[in-house]
């Protein structure tokens, strides 16, 4: 899976096609970014001169739409949700079997983030989270859980340093259909999500686990059932070893597969086939 517009455009898309990619998901983070992302992707595809390759790319790229819990979106959550629903509706009304717009297959990413890193990419600061913002963040997440439930779509959940609150929101809405994206918790938390029917998706971060935590990570990777495991890039972030510190691309997901497969005592190819089956089941494609 990828986040926002596919970076590096047509060259990355061609490489994905050459590697026989079966599925890639361009994930939304803002209420109004769906049409922008679709347009960006179409422009990249239009630069691919080989029409067979271009068609192949169109057949494996899908979209989600959701609202990441930025402070400004939390405070304007009801309006932002209306915008999100409007964008999804507009895309559906303008779609047919030959367009990218028909491939809106999930709500998200959305959820809770309590990792405080003011100097980081998202500028997350604990001081921004007074009681009103904290409750509003949970409500924004629950509104999107309700939307996914209404639309009968799976949901892509962002949860960072917020396990208990995430689980509480899910229980409040009673909707267990989707992915715990870019998983960052331990084995017990994974059991709680999996017991409710959630998929667990691992990103490049698993490849640079601290030595003191490595055995726990390997145990976690071995524990997740075959029918609940997914792999992703979360590009342009979290580039896996040996590319850590560089801009991530969907092509680097191979390193995630290699690491996870080795932990599970299988091959990257077999794990990829397993994940493809899980993707088709989850998203109904």
Task: Explain what you see.
The chain has about 280 residues and is of the alpha/beta class. It has eleven helices and eight strands. It has helices spanning about 10-20, 35-45, 50-60, 70-75, 75-95, 130-150, 165-175, 185-195, 215-225, 255-265, 270-285; strands at about 1-5, 25, 60-65, 105-115, 155-160, 180, 200, 230. Strands 1-2-3-4-5-6-7-8 form an eight-stranded parallel beta sheet. Helix 1 (about 10-20) packs across helix 3 and helix 10 (about 255-265) crosses helix 11. The protein starts with a strand and ends with a helix. About 40% of the residues are buried.
Characteristic key phrases:
globular, single chain, alpha/beta, 8-stranded parallel beta sheet, disordered N terminus, 285 residues, 11 helices
Per-chain topology:
Elements: E1 2-3, H1 9-18, E2 24-27, H2 34-46, H3 51-60, E3 61-65, H4 71-75, H5 77-93, E4 104-113, H6 131-151, E5 155-160, H7 163-173, E6 178-181, H8 187-195, E7 199-202, H9 214-223, E8 229-231, H10 253-264, H11 268-283
Parallel strand pairs: 1-2, 2-3, 3-4, 4-5, 5-6, 6-7, 7-8
Helix pairs in contact: 1-3, 5-6, 6-7, 10-11
């Amino acid at each position: 899976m990828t986040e926002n517009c596919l970076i590096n455009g047509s060259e990355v898309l061609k490489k994905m096609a050459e590697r026989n990619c079966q599925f890639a998901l361009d994930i939304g983070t803002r209420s109004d970014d769906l049409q922008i992302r679709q347009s960006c992707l179409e422009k990249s595809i239009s630069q691919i001169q080989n029409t067979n390759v271009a068609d192949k790319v169109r057949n494996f790229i899908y979209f989600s739409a959701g609202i990441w819990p930025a402070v400004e979106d939390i405070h304007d959550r009801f309006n932002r949700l209306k915008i999100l629903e409007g964008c999804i509706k507009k895309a559906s009304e303008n779609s047919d079997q030959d367009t990218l717009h028909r491939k809106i297959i999930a709500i998200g990413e959305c959820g809770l983030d309590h990792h405080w890193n003011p100097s980081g990419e998202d500028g997350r600061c604990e001081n921004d989270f007074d009681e009103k913002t904290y409750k509003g963040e949970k409500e924004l997440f629950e509104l999107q859980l309700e939307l996914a439930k209404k639309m009968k779509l799976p949901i892509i959940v962002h949860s960072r340093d917020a396990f208990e609150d995430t689980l509480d929101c899910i229980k409040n809405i009673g909707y267990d259909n989707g992915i715990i994206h870019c998983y960052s918790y331990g084995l017990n938390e994974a059991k709680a999500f999996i017991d409710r029917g959630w998929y667990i998706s691992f990103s490049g971060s698993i490849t640079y686990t601290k030595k003191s935590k490595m055995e726990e990570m390997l145990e976690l990777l071995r524990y997740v059932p075959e029918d609940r495991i997914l792999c992703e890039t979360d590009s342009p972030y979290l580039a896996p070893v040996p590319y850590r510190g560089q801009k991530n691309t969907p092509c680097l997901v191979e390193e995630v597969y290699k690491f996870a497969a080795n932990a599970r005592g299988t091959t990257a190819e077999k794990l990829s086939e397993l994940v493809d089956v899980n993707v088709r089941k989850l998203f109904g494609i």
